[in-house]
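Morning run. Coffee first, then this:
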Amino acid sequence: LMLVAEAVFCLALGTSVINVIQNGHRSASTSPWLRKGDVIAAFQAAEAPTDVQGRYVGGLIFRGAAAPTSAIVTHVLFPPVTAGKRWLGKDFASGLNVFDGDRLARPFDAAVAPSVRDGKDALVLTYTGAVWGRTVGMRDELRQLEPGLLLGLGSMRLTGGFRNSAPFFLAVDQPTLDAAMRTYLGEPT
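And here it is:
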């Protein structure tokens, strides 16, 4: 059992290191974003949103070595047992995440603050719960790509912090999210 645990730890550590290296230095104008470095460049070129209200639909950006792990954390570990098994977005009116069945859970505080990534302003979400806030140290940073579309980088202190971030979209509605997936990622919807 100890050997399996050590193997899993080494695999997770290696994946995290590769994910950090893939942050890279790319042009923000590259579209579609083929690499995680393209996403990071777009985040750094974007500005902090000025007016985020109501509910936003979320979608993971499957870029970087840690993308499969990020999907497991987001859709399996992050949702509370009572909230179904799929993260769907964020409700800024309540300061809660949205899960299957329109269930709200996992509180966050939102404030414009300097980004850990580059020091420019971002809408920073800090999680306030005992596990995801104080223990795991979850933090999201959001920048606006275009009206109604935010680019987020999520991180956990427990897994290396912001350098090992996972990208995602937040959109005002499903058609806007679908268009972002096609435009920025070249993915069919």
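Residues 57 and 173 are 6 Å apart (CA to CA). Good start to the day.
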